[in-house]
Amino acid sequence: MVIPTQVNTEQPLQGDLDDIDDSLGSAPYSNEGERKVLIQQYDYAVRTLMDMVVEGDLVLDPDYQRQYRWPDEKAARFIESIVLNIPVPVLYLAEDSDGTFSVIDGQQRLTSLLRFIKPHELSSLYPDRQLAPLELNDLRVRPDLNGMPYASLPRLDKSALAKRPIRCIVILNESDTTLKFEVFERLNTGSVSLTDQEVRNCIYRGSYNQLIKRLATNEDFHELLNLPESLSKAMKDAELVLRFFAYKELTNEAYYADNFAEYLNKHMEDRRVITEDMARRLQDEFEATVQVVKRVLGPGIAFRKPSNREDPSTATFAQNKINGAIYEAQMISFSRYLATGRTLSDIELKERTLRAFSDDVFWNALFQGTAQRRKAIDRSRILTDLLVS
Q1: First-to-last CA distance in the chain?
Q2: Are residues 234 and 152 in the same domain?
Q3: What 3-state DSSP class applies to 118?
Q4: Are 225 and 150 found together in one domain?
Q5: pLDDT band, residue 2 (cuts 50/70/90)
Q6: Structural domain boundaries, residue 109
Q7: Structurally, how many domains does the chain consist of?
Q8: More exposed terminus of the chain, fewer Cβ within 10 Å: N or C?
Q9: What is the DSSP string of 317-360?
Q10: Distances from the Cα of 225 to the Cαs of 24, 149, 318, in angstroms?
Q11: Are residues 368 and 224 both part of a single domain?
Q12: pLDDT tens figures, 295-307
């Protein structure tokens, strides 16, 4: 029997945060009691791993993973290494609540094996992907195998490849969620590290995550944000959707450890599965808020810092990047305004929104200690009061 390994920490963990306009402040993770990461090690034969992929027990292509990008030569040399019994890197997997595993690190290697050993499964497993069967080529030690598909391998080589074990480290589902988030972030060793939201996209898979990703594609929302393509690909737009829903619920009584990343993690964990009715209501609320922000402020002003806070009506606004705290305050406040049923003119709404910048408490809540509970509550409260009073 294999006993799960417990990795404990008694020190706060500092989480990195990919900021927009340096406004999404971070703080050390809270340390409420002992936290543990539970892992279990397996030595799975290559044949077993491929069967797990085909049967759906191992999710080879989860949402958060990037596209397969290995050239055929690199994939072939990896397979040659296994045939030669050369040690290959460990695979890192994560256990989900339904008992399935998903890949944290090792997607390129496993996909290469699948292309070679079970090419007939590619079209059914990944109908939207252009994954071609793999033949060995450019081998250095076993050039006699060049040009061969798996079916043509000599019996001894085919058997050696299928039976060769690969060490797998599985992060068990019972692990502390915050530390599990850290493990995902640190173990992903791709050429570009995963962002916090890409990690959430893996850990908190469910109907709520699907809703957030769907809303992040809203055209009006994208026009207001005007994010660089690189940030959209890194799911920064999805993180902003999440931030709207999460901080709209923040109260003095809510759990909050003055940590932006941990609060968003807990929010997604608590709402992982939502009903279709709840999803529709959240979508309607988000879309209505985006529409009124676009109508009243427009892409050039919404979510941006004014050059002159004493008289914002004559100010210019930063065009190259949005400010996350301003985004949060304006989205939440306009949403609360809509909920009251009031019907101020667009001109009046715009004037009141810009007037908020001259308030010292509001201004400080946008640029100093923005992750603090008091600052997060103040910035939406002050603007909401202006819109609905």
Answers
A1: 65
A2: no
A3: coil
A4: no
A5: very low
A6: 34-171
A7: 2
A8: N
A9: B--S---HHHHHHHHHHHHHHHHHT----HHHHHHHHHHGGG-H
A10: 15, 48, 12
A11: yes
A12: 999 998 999 998 8
Give residue 193's pLDDT: 62
345 and 257 part of one domain? yes
385 pLDDT band, cuts 50/70/90, is very high
Token pair, residue 172, equals 């068990």
If one counts every other C-beta atom within 10 angstroms of the C-beta of residue 361, the result is: 13
Task: For residue 107, tell me if it sits in a domain.
Answer: yes
Asked whether residue 115 carries a pLDDT value surpassing 60, the answer given is yes
Cβ burial 74-98 (10 Å sphere, 16+ → b, else e): ebbbbbbebbeeeeeeebbbbbeee
> What is the pLDDT confidence band of residue 164, given thresholds at 50, 70 and 90?
very high
Q: In terms of C-beta density within 10 A (0-12 exposed, 13-18 middle, 19 or more buried), how is residue 211 classed?
A: buried
Does 238 have pLDDT greater than 60? yes
- Does the pLDDT value for residue 240 go beyond 80? yes
Do 88 and 158 share a domain, yes or no? Answer: yes
**Do 248 and 295 share a structural domain?**
yes
Same structural domain for residues 150 and 211? no
Please indicate, yes or no, if residue 20 is contained in any of the structural domains: no
Site of tokens 């490849």: 161
Does some domain include residue 8? Answer: no
Pair 153, 247 in one domain: no
What three-state secondary structure class fits 23? coil
* Alpha-carbon torsion, ordered 73, 79, 83, 87, to 10 deg: 110
Helix (H, G, I), strand (E, B) or coil at 385: helix
Question: Is residue 244 in a domain?
Answer: yes
pLDDT tens digits, one per residue of 246-270: 999 998 777 787 788 889 988 998 9
Q: What is the distance between the alpha carbons of residues 193 and 186, in angstroms, rounded to a whole number?
A: 8
Between the alpha carbon of residue 251 and those of residues 35, 175, 238, 254, 378, the distances in Å are: 26, 28, 23, 5, 10
Instruction: Tell me the whole-structure pTM to 2 decimals.
Output: 0.65
Q: Do the beta carbons of residue 286 and residue 244 sit within 8 Å?
A: yes
* Three-class SS state of 91: strand
